[in-house]
Amino acid sequence: MNGRVAITAVLFLTTALSTAAHADYSLTILHLNDLHSRLEPISKYNSTCDAKSEEEGKCFGGIARIWTALDERRSALQSEGKNVLTLDAGDQFQGSLFYTTYKGNAAVGFMNEMGFDAMAVGNHEFDDGPSGLANFIGKAEFPVISGNIDVNGEPDLKGKVPGVLVLEKGGEKIGIISALAEDTVDTSSPGEGVRFIKAEDYLKGAVEGLQAAGVNKIVALTHMGLPRDKEIAAAVPGIDIIVGGHSHTLLSNSQDGAEGPYPVIVKNPDGVDVPIVQAYAYGKFLGEIDVTWDDDGNVIKAEGEPILLDASIEPDEDFLERIAELAAPIEELKTKVIGSTTSAIDGDRNSCRAGACQMGTLVADAMLDRVKDQGVQIAIQNGGGLRASIDAGEVTAGEVLTVLPFQNTLSTFELKGADVVAALENGVSQVEDGAGRFPQVAGMKYAFDVSKPAGERVSDVMVMEGEAFVPIDPAKSYMAVSNDYMRRGGDGYEVFKTNASNVYDFGPDLADVVIEYLTAKDGYTPYTDDRITVK
């Protein structure tokens, strides 16, 4: 599809509305993104918080605490006569044993009770294929939208994913448009029947269609990541605010570690400021942004701050009871101690998508250890496949499954040295965007320089031969181990799919491999070394 894309699916949730405002109009948007199935509270490492830490006030988030904060803020705002919009920017799926056990069914039940106005499709909503998303949508009592995906070729989703939503708040029409990261074909499993359209092309047409219908207050609810949201804001006129997700970015005017102000401001093609907000991930924050338009539909104010969901917020008792009921069938698995670690194992995405991290070292070492007797020399694991950290002390099977929730299997294959280097180039090609393809490795070393163009960043690739590292030979074949998702081309590792030989994709579950490795190395000491050098 070329040029500007016409609106093909519009969901109107409005009746007879006034066609013009008569004074400034304000709307408060409460928003979440990237909860990733963290229905239970999380620790400072984003892993599941234990009962003792909860009692000590050291935990954050959890769906019961999110509900308390959301309900209290929405009720307070509405009691003041304010207009409120409640949005989720996607990726409810994947990341804990609740998803492994219940898929999207647990999440949608809670979301229905919480009264969301809309949710964007996130890339991980496709982790169980189109049918997994279709099941979620079928149970959702709120619109699940995404505009730049064409699902007409997918029977499970055809006619079920609107691209535009128009609803009424305080006598005004609010248009909500949505877009999903185009590389979802690499990061999840949307299947052959789902086609992706460049977000800017779709959104330009969607905005024009809304404006032609008399809607002059337009919210883009995206799952693109902050770098892409900035590009969209700069390229698409008519968007009033972008509420995003995907990059797990903390925007704040007060929190330590924030990656930018809340909101970030980007000028659109007409020179108009466009505010962009995102509220980190895992339910640690609830975003709250207040937007004011003048009578002509121009944004004249956008201010707010994400709310830290810490121990000062009391979790809802009914939700706690339901979480306990859902947790019961998996509690035995979660609590089984499989080993210990002398200190916390860092699996934070900011570490594992930018350089060698402790969790990447552990997982790559475990993979290589499992198959080294098969002649395998190197291991490559995508940093995006590592979903949590592990606290110091006893390690449970549940903690490992939270780190590695995707049920990937080990895949072994043979690859030329030149293709190994090409794979590493793919892995570091989007470091500046925090992409999950970053390669954690074992049995090899490499360096990369992010100041160089993508495709020319990798150097000094060495492979362990016997007891020493030697330069990789581009013409030589090497036995490698990865996970089956990457081997089939996931996260842009197309070279694994097209050039690998002697492939076996059906090894043991990656989480089981790490569990066995930690059991054998009880008292494991986390570390990183010089296997990855950032120039």
From TrEMBL:
Which molecular function GO terms apply here? hydrolase activity, acting on ester bonds; metal ion binding; nucleotide binding
Q: Hydrolase among the record's keywords?
A: yes
Domain Calcineurin-like phosphoesterase, by residue range, is: 27-249
Q: List the signal peptide residues.
A: 1-23
**According to its UniProt record, what is one Pfam family this protein matches?**
Metallophos
Name its GO BP terms in alphabetical order. nucleotide catabolic process
- Which terms are listed as keywords in the entry? Hydrolase, Metal-binding, Nucleotide-binding, Signal
Say yes or no: keyword Nucleus present: no
Which CDD domains does the record associate with it? MPP_CD73_N
Residues forming the 5'-Nucleotidase C-terminal domain are: 337-497
| The family this protein is said to belong to | Belongs to the 5'-nucleotidase family.
Q: What's the protein name?
A: 5'-nucleotidase C-terminal domain-containing protein
